[in-house]
Amino acid sequence: MEAVDPVNENYVRVKAGDENKIAIIHGASPAYQLVYNYSLASGEFISDSNMRSSARVVVLGNNIADKLFGSLSPLDESVRIKDQKFTVIGVLKPKGGAIMGVSLDDVVIVPITTFQSRLFAQSTARGENSVQSIAVKVSSPEMINEVKYEIESILRERHHLAVDKKNDFKVVSMDEMIGSLGLVLGILTVFLGAIASISLLVGSVGIMNIMLVSVTERTSEIGLRMAVGATKKDILFQFLVEASILSLIGGIIGMTAGWLISQAISLINIGGMTIQSAVSPDIVIMTLLISIVVGLASGTYPAIKASNLNPIDALRHP
Q1: Burial of 185 (0-12, 13-18, 19+ CB in 10 A)
Q2: The dihedral of CA 62, 15, 26, 86: what is its sign?
Q3: In 3-state terms, what secondary structure has residue 211?
Q4: Residue-level pLDDT at 96
Q5: Would you say the C-alpha torsion 102, 103, 108, 114 has a positive or negative sign?
Q6: Is the confidence at residue 61, as pLDDT, over 80?
Q7: Residues 88-128: tens digit of each pLDDT
Q8: How far apart are CA 89 and CA 159, in angstroms?
Q9: How far is 301 from 308, CA to CA, in rounded Å?
Q10: How confident is the model at residue 262 (pLDDT cuts 50, 70, 90)?
Q11: What are phi and psi of 10, to 5 degrees?
């Protein structure tokens, strides 16, 4: 094991002057920086002396520092957490990424002893300070299973669990967490895909009906075009193009509505936290192509029906 870090977590509102922002607060040890691969942009990280004295010091995530102090340096400035004054000793470099819609740069770190004694006191059944989780960094992926076994053995011993007793804790590797998240995302993708498929089916049936009505109403026009030299291929091509354009316009309207909704979601602020959404060029291109394909598929039958009309009967149509 390279590093071990006990971590307690909660949500807090961090204030500085007239500015405030909701953040994830982590009570941690100096090993936190190594375990979670954070780098400092300025200042210093939590030290052992901060831990021993339960100091009111805090390291700000990059987003939090920007929101509270803008272009000014937050070092040695004060912020308030749960109406207590904390001194900023460091600022983290941007990390990027998010977990469950929460940016990894919306974090603030205080000594875990400060978290336990001054902010969110919570004790075990034996009266000891509780720890929500313990993060471990191993030197290589090959050691994960071995380290998991060692952790489980140590915790079972310290929790005085008999051989026939189940664990009252859970040891989870990052691979398992990613696998669980992938499973959830896979189910969500299938669900959304099913909704999209039903929407496309309903849309294609609608386009087909519109084109069939158009063929009926324009029978005389079709007969006139055939009488002046239009071939079956010309009529077929005309109605296929019309169906594709109709579907493409619908796709553009839907895509525009989706983009507006995504922008509106990005503007939603819940307690100082926002959810970032984006529309990629790949999605735009795919949407337009699917719209054209759906139009072609939906317009095929009406186009064939129009091209097979008898010119004489078509001209007689009222």
Answers
A1: exposed
A2: positive
A3: helix
A4: 74
A5: positive
A6: yes
A7: 999 999 887 666 556 788 899 999 999 998 898 877 667 67
A8: 36
A9: 11
A10: confident
A11: -165, 180
Average pLDDT, the chain: 84
DSSP label at residue 22 = E
Q: Which long-range contacts (CB under 8 A, 24 or more apart) does 100-105 make?
A: 101/275, 102/24, 102/273, 103/61, 103/63, 103/276, 104/61, 105/61, 105/62, 105/63, 105/64
Q: Judge contact between 130 and 122, C-beta under 8 A.
A: yes
Phi-psi region of 15 (alpha: psi -120 to 50; beta: other; left: phi over 0): beta
Residue 16 to residue 177: CA distance in whole angstroms: 35
Ordered DSSP codes for 55-120: --EEEE-HHHHHHHHTTS--TT-EEEETTEEEEEEEEEPP---EETTEETTSEEEEEHHHIIIII-
Q: Which residue has the tokens 């149509």?
A: 317
Mean pLDDT of 232-241: 89
The secondary structure of the chain in percent helix, strand, coil, rounded to multiples of 5, reads 50, 20, 25
Task: Of 55-59, 193-197, 234-238, 263-267, give the range with the top mean pLDDT.
Answer: 55-59
Q: How far apart are CA 286 and CA 265, in angstroms?
A: 22
Strand partners, 59: 90, 109
Tally Cβ neighbours within 10 Å of residue 226. 21
